[in-house]
Structures are given as structure tokens and as C-alpha cells.
């Protein structure tokens, strides 16, 4: 008798599929494994267009180069993040903009909106949002005093940023930080740590970092996302140490 119970796969719809992908992501599985070794860094081989008998080959369509310039004011930037020009514009769901004062002393950056955030109309809602509010209150802060944003304006499938746009989204996040120019930046979760610091959360935690941007310098602290703390309450003590480090940076 097997250890795993059987289940009916008939109702395996899109929501359930996304839930399963979430589970594997949380378990640390982030790539597919094939039977034969594959060079993932090799360029994709060119493929000849399919031409039906008697049909003339179609002319190649011009490929537009990706835009490199970003709006240089916060209002224009936030509007751009919700526009069709943003990298996530073709993803499912709705885009959520940042909230909070433009001149906030503390900026908070997460990976992406959660599934319930679209209905709530703000990043960090539901149970993770309630825990986040308690974290801010413990620091003597509130949503009205901090600038909250996400690396991805929309939630990618399974909550994981596609590798093809990860670098571009990191550039956009850093540009956002430069427009706000906060004294402190709190990164919640691994994806936010990679985007800003270029390192995994396990290596980023435990000390403050400093990043340069066009408006000066900002102290950065990385800690666990509230959704992780809900699943692993024992990590709250370590997270509190990180929050105390943020408080010290803001007072300095």
C-alpha cells in the first residue's frame, strides 16, 4: 500500500495546476529535469519558417529592441508600470501599483502580488498583509508612512519570476528605489533580495547593505516574506532581528 493517497485528476483545472506549481516552488523545485543532459546556456537553434507548397515565404517581421529608458519622475514611472509597455503587461491578472508616500523614509519591496491582492487592490493583503501590518506596528510604522512596491507588477504563474525578464525587472526595481530615495529599504523574500542585492536571502540576511542610486545611497535589509513567516512561525524571532536592524538604520 503506497504512502500517497490517490486523487481524482478530472477536476485538474488551471487554479489547481497553479496551486501544485506553487507547492513545488515552495519545496525548492524551480526547473525541469530531462533524461539527457542539456546545455541550458547554448543559444536556441534557428528554425526555418514553415512554408506550404506553392506559398511564397513571408517577409520577416521587424523585432523591436527592448526599451531601456524609464520615466524619470515617480508619478510617470508608476503610470508606466501599469501600462502596456511594462514587461508584465501580457501576463494574466491585473497590475498593482505601489502605495504609500513618495518621500517615505522606508520603502518595502516584495516579489509580486499574491492571488488575493487583486481583489483587495493593494500589495500585501489577506493574512500576509495582516502580519505585515503587525510587523510595521512593532517598528512604530504603518502603511501610511511606508512606500510598498513589488518587483513584479503582476503575479507570474506559480509566483515565480520568469528567468527571461528577471534582469529587466531588477533594473526597474532599482530605478524605483532611486526615484523614492528612501533612507531604508526592506526586502521581503528571496526574489526581492535577488533583484536588489543580486544574492539569495540566506546570504543577504544578518547585516545591512548599502546600494547606490542616482539620488544617493540607501541602507538595505532583507528578511522573510510574511507568507513564509505564516508557514514557519519559528522564523519570526530571526525576522524581528532584521526589523530591529532596519529601525537602527532609520535612526542613524
From TrEMBL:
InterPro entries: UDG_Type-4/5, Uracil-DNA_glycosylase-like, Uracil-DNA_glycosylase-like_sf. Pfam families: UDG. The keyword Metal-binding applies. Residues 97-244 form the Uracil-DNA glycosylase-like domain. SMART domains: UDG, UreE_C. The keyword Isomerase does not apply. CDD domains: UDG-F4_TTUDGA_SPO1dp_like (cd10030). Transmembrane segments: none annotated. GO terms for biological process: DNA repair. Keywords: 4Fe-4S, DNA damage, DNA repair, Hydrolase, Iron, Iron-sulfur, Metal-binding, Nucleotidyltransferase, Transferase. Its EC number is 2.7.7.7. One of its GO terms (molecular function) is DNA-directed DNA polymerase activity. PANTHER family: TYPE-4 URACIL-DNA GLYCOSYLASE, TYPE-5 URACIL-DNA GLYCOSYLASE. This is DNA polymerase. It comes from Sphingomonas yabuuchiae.
Amino acid at each position: 500500500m503506497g504512502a500517497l493517497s490517490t486523487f481524482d485528476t478530472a477536476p485538474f483545472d488551471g487554479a489547481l495546476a497553479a496551486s501544485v506549481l506553487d507547492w513545488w516552488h515552495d519545496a525548492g523545485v524551480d526547473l525541469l529535469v530531462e533524461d539527457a543532459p542539456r546545455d541550458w546556456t547554448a543559444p536556441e537553434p534557428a528554425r526555418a519558417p514553415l512554408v506550404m507548397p506553392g506559398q511564397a515565404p513571408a517577409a520577416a517581421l521587424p523585432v523591436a529592441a527592448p526599451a531601456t529608458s524609464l520615466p524619470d519622475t515617480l508619478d510617470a514611472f508608476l503610470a508606466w508600470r501599469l501600462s502596456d509597455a511594462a514587461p508584465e503587461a501580457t501576463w494574466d491578472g491585473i497590475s498593482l501599483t505601489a502605495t504609500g508616500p513618495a518621500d517615505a523614509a522606508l520603502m518595502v519591496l516584495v516579489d509580486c502580488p499574491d492571488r488575493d491582492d487583486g481583489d483587495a487592490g493593494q500589495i500585501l493583503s489577506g493574512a500576509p498583509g495582516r502580519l505585515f501590518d503587525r510587523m510595521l506596528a512593532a517598528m512604530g510604522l504603518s502603511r501610511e508612512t511606508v512606500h510598498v512596491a513589488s518587483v513584479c507588477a503582476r503575479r507570474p504563474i506559480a509566483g515565480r519570476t520568469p528567468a527571461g525578464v528577471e534582469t529587466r525587472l531588477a533594473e526597474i526595481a532599482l530605478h524605483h528605489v532611486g526615484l523614492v530615495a528612501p533612507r531604508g529599504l526592506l526586502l521581503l523574500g528571496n526574489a526581492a533580495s535577488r533583484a536588489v542585492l543580486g544574492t539569495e536571502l540566506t546570504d543577504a540576511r544578518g547585516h545591512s547593505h548599502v546600494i547606490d542610486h542616482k539620488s544617493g545611497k540607501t541602507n538595505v535589509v532583507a528578511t522573510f516574506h510574511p507568507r513564509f513567516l505564516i508557514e514557519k512561525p519559528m522564523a519570526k524571532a530571526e525576522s524581528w532581528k532584521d526589523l530591529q536592524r532596519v529601525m537602527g538604520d532609520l535612526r542613524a
